[in-house]
Amino acid sequence: MKKFFCMAALMIVAALALNSCGSDEPKSKVTATATYNMTFSQDLLDACNVFITYKAENGRNVMEAVDKTWWTKTVTSDKFPAEFGVMYKFSTKSEAELVKEKYDLTCEFNFMCNTSKGASYSNKFTIINATGVANNKVISTLDKISGKSTGFKVTKDGIVSLANNLNYDI
After folding, report:
1. Helix, strand, or coil here: 102?
2. pLDDT of 35 higher than 60
3. 140 CB-near residues (< 8 Å, 6+ apart)
4. Which pLDDT tens digit goes with each residue over 42-64?
5. Residues forming beta bridges with residue 74, ordered by sequence position
6. pLDDT above 50 for 109
């Protein structure tokens, strides 16, 4: 009988010891959430077809055609360093379709990023600001910026670095 009580006591102690080894707090996964906002002048949309390839969840590339003056996406990543960014392509319409004498070609990009650890970063810049462009210069003006990209890498701690060499192949 003593052996039974000793074994039972040992099993209880072992069970308590094993139960207290792990943390009661579940480990939360660190995430980074980025929001891309782009604005386009109506003249830019009239002069060309706009295609955006952006870094989506966990760095996946997604391409979308843009037909409105405002484009926005919010994406999340839990793979670090997290990659965020956009590549913009402007497929200019033929000169026959450029019926206005002059075009105002503008595009602004705004990037915001927050991590679940509380770090945040934002950046805003002009992709193109060409006003009063003659219709015979629209194609050459847009060709200079088409296919360019801007990107960012974010660490778990929220440190952001420019990364304009990200791969946007689909």
Report:
1. strand
2. yes
3. none
4. 999 999 999 999 999 999 999 99
5. 35
6. yes
Pairing between strand 102-115 and 120-134?
Answer: antiparallel
Q: How many alpha carbons lie under 13 Å from residue 58 in its C-beta half-sphere?
A: 3
**Residue 38 tokens, joined:** 């782009």
Name residue, tokens 């701690």: 157
Whole-angstrom Cα distance, residue 8 to residue 4?
A: 6
d(CA 61, CA 116): 23
How confident is the model at residue 59, as a pLDDT? Answer: 93
Residues in Cβ contact with 72 at an 8 Å cutoff, skipping those fewer than 6 apart:
35, 36, 37, 38
Q: Where are the alpha helices (DSSP H) in the chain?
A: 2-21, 42-47, 138-143
On whether the CB atoms of residues 154 and 32 are closer than 8 A, the answer is yes
**pTM listed for this prediction:** 0.81
Say if CB 128 and CB 105 are below 8 A apart: yes
For the stretch 14-31, pLDDT in tens is 555 555 555 555 678 899
Domain boundaries, the chain: 32-162
Q: What is the pLDDT of residue 114?
A: 95
